[in-house]
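Page 37, top half.
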Amino acid sequence: MEKVESSLGMLPIISTSMADQVELRLREYIANKAFKPGDAIPKEIELAEALGVSRNVVREALSRFRMLGIIETKKRRGMILAQPDILSGLERMMQPHMLGADTRKQIFEFRLVLEVGQAALLFARKTEEGIQKLQEVVKRESQVSSIPEKVECEIAFHSTLYEMAGNETIKRFQTMLMPVFEYVVEYETSHQFHAVGSVTHQDLINILKTGTPAEFASGMLKHLEPHFVLLS
């Protein structure tokens, strides 16, 4: 039997996995109609009739969209397309004890790659104030002796770099990945391994002042090299 498009321009569902198919069809509909955040979405009953399924099935698919922040309900407007928070789900799940060893390793490697890859942004957006904050961390680092204090300075230095890069999504990634970073650092500490690269924090500041993005990326890679070695 040939499927015929409804008045809303959607094909009815003929499938045993209704909710999944409705979700897929709604994603296609939103994309094809080029909806933008704030645009109204057809009512639940209209969607059910257009797709040839029950309202319960549509409701289940829509609940998934709400959970992902794709749609929301407004008074006197009904359902509208929202501005989804693409990181919120990841933030809720980023608990080291819930992740396997391989996943923790891969996430930590991803964080290290971010550190190296943000060089161009840092040079485009560096400020004297930001460099001064980095210098203060290095000064504090020179005055501490215990490994926990040095680790705290390590985290503060790299957090300041993320702030200086000025990309809110990268900053949220850094915050989100911090528990995994701390987990790996604790692992290194418990195994009496304190990573010290051939390029120091002060060296990185000097490159930031007078060097190039390529030199900074190379220096950061050397700075983080002990972490890569331990993970390999």
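Page 37, bottom half:
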Amino acid sequence: MAGDKWLEPYTDIEIDKMPAKGIKNLAVVTPAFVSDCLETLEEIAMRAREDFEKNGGENFLAVPCLNDDDQWCQTVGNWINDWAE
């Protein structure tokens, strides 16, 4: 991905602006990630929360990824079984 442009708008920049726009409560969902990783745990759950609160935000929720949720695992298993048949 070296040299490729990232999808915009950039999450960190937009989150930083939200408190000034009157957004004091924010829940962030990362649908591109099915399991938590460095981007979701460190960049969103930690750094984005800190920046949001530093800029005047009051309540921040980083919604966890699906990870090993039973229903999600069952769905993936069903997809694999369907594909294998």
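Margin note: The longest strand covers residues 25-28.
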